[in-house]
């Protein structure tokens, strides 16, 4: 049996801190100064957008979505200089890790604010609507998967295909 050697193009690890600009080192080549710049850029940009959208009575989350679109690959990310300087590939591991930690913290705070008494007060009618809203589309998807399994899922195991389509 022949084996193939597949090499990936993984970005190299970044050193955490630099010796400083006076040692002829760019701070943006190191993880800590770069992540600080990225966080500051995102926060300042989204707060500026929130300030500009305040007269239009838009919530801050709209400013954050628009900021993500403008700072991401849709707008400014098309500039190779911007992308390679502010958001280089080798820094994405650190940025993704911090983003996941932030999301985990946010979900923890949402869980702390959850009020079970309000959920109990809504009663059986809300529960019935929620169960119907989840189960009816799932059953429709499962039925569709049985109809389409002969044409679409060639070489795919049946159970994962049914769950995916459901």
From TrEMBL:
This protein's UniProt keywords: Ion transport, Membrane, Potassium, Potassium transport, Transmembrane, Transmembrane helix, Transport
Cellular compartments per GO CC: endomembrane system; membrane
Domain Cation/H+ exchanger transmembrane, chain residue ranges per copy: 45-148
Main subcellular localisation: membrane
Keyword Protein transport part of the UniProt annotation: no
Top-rank taxon, per record: Eukaryota
Residues annotated as transmembrane: 30-49, 61-77, 97-116, 128-152
GO biological process: potassium ion transport; proton transmembrane transport; regulation of pH
One Pfam family here: Na_H_Exchanger
Hydrolase recorded as keyword: no
Topology class, membrane: Multi-pass membrane protein
Cellular compartment(s): Membrane
One GO molecular-function entry: antiporter activity
InterPro entries for this protein: Cation/H_exchanger_TM, CPA2_transporter, Na+/solute_symporter_sf
Similarity comment: family membership: Belongs to the monovalent cation:proton antiporter 2 (CPA2) transporter (TC 2.A.37) family. CHX (TC 2.A.37.4) subfamily.
Protein name: Cation/H(+) antiporter 19
UniProt organism field: Noccaea caerulescens (Alpine penny-cress)
